[in-house]
Amino acid sequence: GAVVSQHPSWVICKSGTSVKIECRSLDFQATTMFWYRQFPKQSLMLMATSNEGSKATYEQGVEKDKFLINHASLTLSTLTVTSAHPEDSSFYICSAQAPGTSADTQYFGPGTRLTVL
Amino acid sequence: RKEVEQDPGPFNVPEGATVAFNCTYSNSASQSFFWYRQDCRKEPKLLMSVYSSGNEDGRFTAQLNRASQYISLLIRDSKLSDSATYLCVVNWGSGTYKYIFGTGTRLKVLA
What is the pLDDT of residue A107? Predict the structure, then answer.
C-alpha cells in the first residue's frame, strides 16, 4: 500500500528557532502533498497544498512566510516553521495523493509532534 | 455553521453494541466523503469511503444523504479495539481535492 513517512516524529525546540519537518512518499511518487495541523482535542486543519515544482497554496489565515513549504521532488515535501513560538506547538501531519488510486484519496504520514518552549 | 459538523461525544458503549454516528456538511458541491479513524496521538487512517448507494465493510456501514447533506457510520457488534475518534471528511468543492475534517466523534467501547 501507499506509505508516507515523516521526520522527525517529535521535536522540542526553543522559542525563536526554526524547525524543518520532512514528508516522504516511500513507494510512490506524489505530485501533490498536503500539510495539516492538529491542536489538542481539535480536528485536523489544512494549512497548505504542496505541488511538486511550484509554489504551495496556503489556506486563509496561514502565514506563508512563517510556514515555508518546499516540494522539490516527487517524493519529498518539507515544512519549515520559522521563528517558532509556543503557540506553534502542535501535531503536524502531511498527506500525499497516491497515483493509481481515486484522485482524492490521501495517505497520511505518522505526524510530527512539535513542542516549542 | 461549521463546514463539517460532528457530535464530539464521547459515546461510551458496551462490547457488542451497535452505535451510529452522523456528520453534516455545509457545502452542497462536496464530491467525496470519507470516514477516517484516529487513535490517540496517531495519524488518521482511512476507514471507508462513502458512496451515494451506501456501502458496507464487515461490521461497518456508511450512508450518504445528499439531499439532507449528511453522512452516517454504523458500527455493529462493537469491539474494544473500535475505541478511537472517528473523523468525518469531505472533499471540498468540485475539482479540488482538499479535505475538510470534522472535529471527530470519540467512541469508547467498554468491556
Answer: 87
